[in-house]
Design a protein that fits this description.
Blueprint lengths: L11 H7 L9 E2 L9 E2 L6 H13 L2 E4 L2 E4 L9 E8 L2 E10 L7 E5 L2 E2 L4 E3 L6 E9 L3
């Protein structure tokens, strides 16, 4: 394992040692001289796909289940939120997720086209229209 702890592009020396693309997941980081700290097997693993799923599903909290997009973000406390333009077949959903530290700790409110939803999910329809979704995440302090 590299002593840089995953920050392989933090300095010119680290970049010169790692020698692979900083935006993909390496299957190997060599620990034996003369290649200590060098990355390898970057495009031969499923790790990039798993990293994508980790970010989209676990951090951003978006998980598709047939025709419903479940929303359960797990954001760092200093993030104010994020926006996603999600395409479901031929229909676009403009999703704004805002995190607040006021009231209702742990609650997530989902509003689709002005209508508050009973569950933490967005019902998806392929009606070729654009839809606006607002999600309020009430962070735990």
């Amino acid at each position: 394992m590299s002593s840089t702890g995953g920050n392989h592009a933090k300095s010119q020396d680290a970049i010169a040692t790692y020698k692979v693309e900083p935006y993909v997941m390496a299957a190997d980081v060599y620990a034996v001289a003369p290649h200590t700290g060098r990355g390898g097997w970057t495009w031969y693993t499923g790790s990039a796909g798993w990293m994508y799923r980790l970010i989209v599903e676990s951090l951003l909290g978006l998980r598709l289940e047939v025709d419903r997009l479940h929303v359960t973000p797990c954001l760092p406390s200093h993030w104010p939120g994020f926006k996603v333009h999600y395409r479901y077949r031929e229909t676009v959903y403009h999703i704004t997720i805002t995190q607040t530290h006021a009231g209702n700790a742990g609650k997530i409110a989902v509003v689709v086209d002005g209508i508050e939803q009973e569950r933490q999910e967005i019902p998806l329809v392929d009606d070729h229209q654009e839809h606006t979704v607002e999600v309020a995440v009430f962070a735990r302090s």
